[in-house]
Amino acid sequence: MDDQLERLNRLPLRDDLRGQHPYGAPQIDVPIQLNVNENTYGVPQDVQEAIVEAVREVAAGLNRYPDREFTALREALAEYLGHGLGAEQLWAANGSNEVLQQLLQAFGGPGRSVLSFPPTYSMYPLLASGTGTAYIKGERAEDFGLSAESAARQVREHAPSIVILCSPNNPTGTALGLDVVEAVYAAGEESQTVVIVDEAYAEFAHTGTQSALTLLPGRPRLVVSRTMSKAFALAGARLGYLAAAPEVVDALRLVRLPYHLSAVTQATALAALRHRTSLMAEVEAIKGQRDRIVRELAGLGLSPAASDSNFVFVRGFEDPRRIWEGLLESGIIVRDVGIPGSLRITAGTEAETTAFLDRLRELLVTA
Ligand SMILES: *Cc1c(COP(=O)(O)O)cnc(C)c1O
User: Fold this and answer.
1) What are the entry keywords (predicted)?
2) I need a surface site. Which of 106, 149, 314, 345 has the fewest CB within 10 A?
């Protein structure tokens, strides 16, 4: 390994990539995987069959490049989101990570900057470095909250090219009020800051939580990013998307690779959208397990954060590493996000959640 690192260091790698580490949630094949916020329910049989059928239909034409504009998929995504959106306001790529990368390629880059508010999604600084965009770490309150005044002040102070607001936030799980998005957008008026709201977990939010989609009319620098990787139980298919003004979509056409969305991906995503009622049937059950984790961990004297997502961020562990390892010994993997005294747990099926809670109770008494 050290040998390989040495060989890497001898390559003429970009200076700003030297010494960096790749995105690294461990992929360990254990029975109960509660570490990367996937939907742990498998794809239902009827949806599997619809996907296979849709892929079969395009297979004969795979000698040709796919529809570069993935028009049918954009129409279906617009219809799913509602809010009066049209296909010309939708864009998609291989996961919302690629969508975010394209946004940074178009609106960031050398000499420009992106601001986000850690602890937040660990990919933001990596996407910044990959695109040569300076990454600015914003500040949150002690309890990891972010008020409209604080966020707006930091935008005025740094005048970044881009701000990314993650709502519900990963890893803390809490959704932002729309007042924060409005204030950040207004504060970025002078610097013409592009405001991205990453709503990867929007479908898990408590009833009544408003989406930033409602703020799109009249805000040409606002972008709302979504994904089929979480609520749609389709992380393996790689489909993320955004809604924004049509001119933002035009900007992304300048940086996307030609034919970036394969015909297989387009067919898969379309079939999934057509069968979304079946595919998303377990979202309510997952929310129930999420609320159960919050309730039960609070009862154990830990400090779970309020969550609008399919995971729970928990503080108050004396030795999170010991807990993480103890769970792993029992075939359960959760996420150590590197924040002292904390762990992040994905809400799985009822049986998975029960197994996690039972083992955790054991580990806490043997402390
Ligand atoms: C999981 C996640 C995504 C999804 O990424 P994909 O590339 O669509 O799989 C995006 N943003 C956040 C904050 C996430 O946690």
Assistant:
1) Amino-acid biosynthesis, Aminotransferase, Histidine biosynthesis, Pyridoxal phosphate, Transferase
2) 149
Rounded to the nearest angstrom, the distance between the alpha carbon of 125 and the centre of ligand 1 is: 14
Ligand 1 pocket check for 36: Cβ under 6 Å: no
Domain finish residue from 252, 274, 296: 274
What's the CATH number where 96 sits? Answer: 3.40.640.10
Residue with tokens 């790689």: 238
10-residue averages of pLDDT along the chain (367 residues): 85 89 82 95 96 98 97 98 98 98 98 98 95 97 95 98 98 96 98 98 94 98 98 96 98 97 98 95 95 97 96 96 96 95 97 97 88
* Cα-to-centroid distance, 227 and ligand 1 (Å): 7
Which residues are bridge partners to 114 per DSSP? Answer: 135, 162
- The total domain count for the chain is 2
Please tell me the distance from the alpha carbon of residue 4 to that of residue 49, in angstroms, as a whole number: 44
Same domain, 222 and 344: no
Backbone angles phi, psi at 28, to 5 degrees: -110, 130
Tell me, using a 6 A CB cutoff, whether residue 309 lines ligand 1.
no
Among the three residues 250, 274, 298, which one is the final residue of a domain in this structure? 274
**Which residue in 112, 30, 47, 72 sits closest to 281, CA to CA?**
47
